[in-house]
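Researcher: Next entry in the queue.
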Amino acid sequence: MRAMPDYSDIEKWMIENATFPYPFMKGLNLSELFYREAVRPIMEESFSDLIYSAALIGSGSEVLGFDTEQSMDHDWGPRLYLFLDPSDFNPYSKVLDETFRKKLPREIRGVPTGTVLINNGPNMLLPVDEGEEINHMITFTTSRVYFSEYLGFDPLSEISVTDWLVTSQQCLRSIATGRVFHDGLGELKPIVDKLQYYPHDLWLYLLANQWNRISQEEGFVGRTGQVNDELGSRIVASRLIRDIMNLCFLMEKTYAPYIKWVGTGFAQLKCSDMLTPLFHQIMDATTWQERQNSLVKVYEFIAEKHNDLGITAPLDTRPSNFRNRPFLVIRGDKFAEAIFETIQDEKIRCLPRYLGSVDQFSDSTDLLSYPQKLKRCRALYE
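Model: Structure for this entry, 382 residues:
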């Protein structure tokens, strides 16, 4: 392992060396090893009668499986949540923290188990000398407290339609893709299973609204180009690509990740092999006509993909003129209406027809990443 510098400015070290002094492995795997080789033995030795669960879920690129060596520069390393029964939290959380600070190994597979807080900002891995306490990355909580704070609702209770709608897909994905290492409480695995994806009729509602989003702007790639607004045409095309990508996430029943990872997540979808080259053609086109030619192929593909779902009667997959103008569109509204008509759940049929979930009417990070702010959106569905 490369020696750490004598100076304490670790950030400077990272910048000057453009690398990290610890071996990299995927964070989920590292944290599972941390649990099995470090945390569990201590629990068995010192707290053998304590019932608990352990997992790595929630925020962090490693939870999504998208972490790289660059991720090691902040809030990354051997970490996990240790869930306690509410009756055990106050009696045990402090003593657990003290025990782990003293008994954890200094490193796991060459990666320090301790961190330092940099400039009141993120945690960064830091080797700890023998005899020093370890500032570990184990968080003690309860299921209800954790999920109420992270999602804005308690999944141990019945999840309402509104709960689903005001929770961002990026948050839901970070629960669905996380990993439960141990579930002595018997709560975590059922919660993760329950949150794997939307209920069927709610999925239909979101699909319909995503098609409707496409219908709102599909005619403007050509119209902007027609008035020699090439920049405007490119912007509209890029927005349509984003909406079509989100439609594909829905079609394949996969939560869309945080914007930084949308392209990476999209590459994992079955449709990406066909669509990604077409998206590049759209972005690289120098005229609106070239752009439209590639968009037409995209429209035909997603229309066929819709028919393959079998959720409505087969719909025409051939693009047509937008309001008798020379702009070819797929008529996203036609798909939206057909899907709306298949919804059986009366609670969902009564939802605002063209609103959708929070992800479909906002892309603000300051909203989607903060459940307590998202709670205020509940009024939109009343």
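Model: Residues 1-7 have pLDDT under 50 and may be disordered.
Researcher: Noted, moving on.
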